[in-house]
Design goal:
The complex is a heterodimer of chains A (about 375) and B (about 300). The termini of chain A are far apart. By secondary structure, chain A is of the alpha/beta class. Chain A is built from 13 helices and 15 strands. The longest helix of chain A has 20 residues. The relative contact order of chain A is 0.14. Chain A is globular and about 65 Å long. In chain A, the strands form three sheets. Chain A has a seven-stranded mixed β-sheet with strand order 7-6-8-9-10-14-15, sandwiched between helices. In chain B, α5 packs across α6. The termini of chain B are far apart. Chain B has about 300 residues and is mainly alpha-helical. Chain B has one domain. The mean pLDDT of chain B is about 90. In chain B, β2 and β3 form a beta hairpin. Chain B has eleven helices and four strands; from the N terminus they run ααααβββααααβααα. Classes of the chains: A alpha/beta (about 375), B mainly alpha (about 300). The interface between A and B is large, with 38 and 39 residues.
């Protein structure tokens, strides 16, 4: 009985469904990210199944919550691969957690597609790791150019989350490009994700008199930073990356986040037919507007499904090759190809918070 | 110069909240000789009590406004006092004659129980919530320094509560009973003091202060979540040990010192990442040179 339970149950596609594993932060600190990407993923799976599935089989999504905690993704992905026998793994939004799961998928030769992890290290883990989003060197460059050109900032302060690979990476690439543009960094400070008190850092930043403050963190912390910056009577613009995009930023930050900027993967205001169809389907199912994380989750499923079709099998190595060959894919988040480093090459959107909403400002091509 | 005094105010406001919580640790230690690790979670429950009560109280008293704020503070303190008493009654009282280690482990269990229950969707949920604005806030300038009004409220409230607490402990009959139980509980009960009542009262008083700390913390930093008590509780515990565990003014002093050190560390380039590490390093250093804490006095263990 015990030995039976330990046997890996039906490996890749022996059953009448194709099992796809997903790990996401459905609860915990970055819960809105995980929830959004999960909902996008779920929607895509449903659409594909109602259109007949892939290779004559339905897709079966096995979702596990990692509670936004370090340590969990490794356990979960291990379980998904060895016990559930999934043919591919989808996840995560946060780079730190994708980095934890990637070596396991790589060792098992099971392709993993991250919807929204932007730290370059994620796909460097191995040739089975992919992503459908741009990477931080690009995002950092975009934001540095934005600071120089649009904000006309000469002196910028940087406030980094020391606990997050994403935040540290983005800060580094931003700094490189911004200095190349002739700007200077007035002060560089850090916090630990989950902190509530940022007054110490903000007082120093204010003292260094920057033209703008770059905060490449996650929405939870950013909302509190914005509130405390406002209380400290700081009036310079704050700007950051795709870690900002969450309804929670608006709910917690309220008028304190008004007028600030961030870069992200796409805007629901985009008028491409793909985006319009996605927004209306999402709205119908979840009764709310989608965000970039949802769109990326949705795209990651279609990239996988299309690759399974092209490969004609769900066998690890062949499926890997098919995903790697993804070219000119028409996604909700724009048209993109996967490059030799298995990263998506695509444009970034810059949004501004206006009247309690994310407003599209400009698109920047790679 | 401007920046230094600004940081000092930031640090004192943070330290004031630590002080309020540290007093709860120290008082319980004083009467029961054990560390109530669930105390940080009572602080968290205080924040959420304020969060949920504020919209109710706003129906009668305008919020943001002083009247509404006083009501939220008072109601939260009462709720937290009850929570503290109930925790003691259910979890610690049945273990009163057991080894202290048993109670200590139970306290950690209670703490985890509260944290993870509250993260469930049916209670508060795991995501961060924005604490409502209870008072009109503004920035004002004195001598070229700009201050936030909330920080002054936090500091003054802490001061008032500390004075009131000192009065209770030093000048009232029940305070005298508390000191007697702390000194020698067996002798105190021979003198007709109900130990159980005094212990309940101590838990209630400490938890009420933690509740007040929870509301003040929410007002200052806005973001509240079910795990917020872990780190703050740990820091307050450090503050209590720093000041000399069992010593009330020591807990307050320890809190303020810790808050100020942390804020200065947080504002320093290159050091800001190690803010928490610095706080704990200080604890270790002080305890090496002064094992009884800043204001603690030597005690002879009876064998």
């Amino acid at each position: 009985m015990v030995s039976l339970l330990l046997l890996p149950s039906c490996k890749s596609g022996n059953g009448d469904t194709i099992k796809v594993g997903e790990f996401a932060s459905l609860t915990g600190k970055e819960a809105t990210f995980g929830t959004s990407s999960h909902e996008g993923t779920e929607l895509a799976i449903e659409e594909i199944n109602s259109a007949g599935g892939v290779l004559g089989k339905k897709l079966e999504l096995l979702t596990e919550d990692n509670q936004s905690k370090a340590g969990e993704p490794a356990n979960i992905v291990n379980k998904l691969i060895s016990r559930d026998g999934v043919v591919a793994v989808l996840g995560e939004v946060a780079s730190s957690r994708s980095l934890e799961a990637a070596p396991i998928a790589q060792a098992a030769k099971i392709p993993m597609i991250s919807p929204a992890s932007t730290n370059p290290k994620v796909t460097e883990v191995g040739d089975y790791i992919f992503r459908v989003c741009f990477i931080d060197p690009f995002q950092g460059t975009v934001m540095a150019n934005f600071a120089t050109k649009t904000l006309k900032a000469r002196k910028v302060a940087i406030l980094t989350d020391a606990k997050s690979d994403y935040s540290k990476g983005l800060a580094k690439y931003f700094k490189e490009q911004f200095i190349k543009n002739g700007g200077s960094i007035s002060s560089e400070l850090s916090y630990n994700g989950g902190d509530k008190d940022f007054k110490g850092q903000l007082t120093t930043i204010k003292g260094s008199a920057p033209d703008a403050v770059f905060i490449p963190g996650y929405y939870n912390d950013v909302a509190l930073i914005a509130i405390q910056a406002k209380e400290a009577a700081m009036s310079v613009p704050l700007f950051g990356g795709d870690g900002w995009e969450s309804e929670n930023l608006l709910q917690v930050g309220k008028d304190a986040v008004e007028g600030h900027y961030f870069s992200t993967h796409c805007s629901p205001e985009d008028t491409s037919p793909k985006m319009i169809a996605f927004v209306s389907a999402y709205q119908a199912k979840y009764k709310k507007a989608p965000d970039a994380m949802a769109a990326l989750g949705y795209d990651s499923v279609y990239v996988l499904a299309e690759a399974i079709k092209r490969a004609g099998t769900t066998e690890g190595p062949k499926l890997r090759d098919a995903i790697a060959a993804t070219k000119d894919f028409e996604g909700v988040t724009g048209k993109f190809s996967l490059d030799e480093k298995r990263d998506a090459v695509k444009s970034a959107a810059i949004l501004q918070i206006k009247d309690g909403k994310f407003k599209f400002l400009e698109t920047i091509a790679p | 110069m401007n920046e230094i005094s600004q940081q000092l105010v930031n640090g004192l406001a943070l330290g004031a909240v630590y002080a309020l919580i540290a007093i709860g640790y120290t008082m319980v230690y004083g009467v029961l000789r054990f560390i109530n690790f669930a105390h940080g979670d009572v602080f968290m429950l205080g924040s959420f009590t304020g969060y949920y009560l504020a919209p109710q109280i706003a129906k009668w008293f305008p919020i943001p406004g002083w009247g509404g704020w006083v009501m939220v503070m008072a109601a939260t303190m009462i709720v937290c006092a009850i929570i503290g008493i109930v925790i003691e009654l259910l979890a610690y009282r049945p273990l009163r004659d057991r080894p202290k280690l048993t109670v200590l482990i139970t306290a950690i269990g209670v703490s985890l129980l509260i944290e993870y229950t509250c993260q469930h969707k049916a209670f508060f949920g795991a995501s961060q919530k924005a604490f409502p604005q209870l008072l009109p806030t503004g920035n004002f300038t004195i001598g070229g320094l700009s201050f936030n009004s909330t920080q002054f409220v936090v500091l003054s409230v802490t001061l008032v509560l500390l004075v009131a607490l000192t009065f209770i402990v030093k000048k009232t009959r029940i305070g005298m009973a508390m000191r007697a139980v702390s000194h020698n509980s067996a002798a105190a009960s021979l003198m007709g003091i109900s130990n159980s009542f005094i212990i309940s009262f101590t838990f209630g008083l400490g938890s009420a202060l933690a509740g007040a700390g929870g509301v003040l913390y929410g007002m200052t930093y806005t973001g509240i979540d079910p795990l917020m008590g872990v780190n703050v509780g740990l820091k307050a515990f450090v503050a209590a040990v720093l000041g000399g565990i069992g010593n009330l003014p020591g807990a307050a002093l320890g809190g303020l010192v810790l808050g100020v050190v942390e804020t200065f560390a947080g504002g320093m380039s290159g050091v800001s990442t190690y803010r928490d590490g610095i706080a704990f390093a200080i604890l270790i250093i002080i305890l090496i040179f002064k094992p009884t804490g800043l204001l603690g006095s030597k005690q002879i263990e009876k064998v």
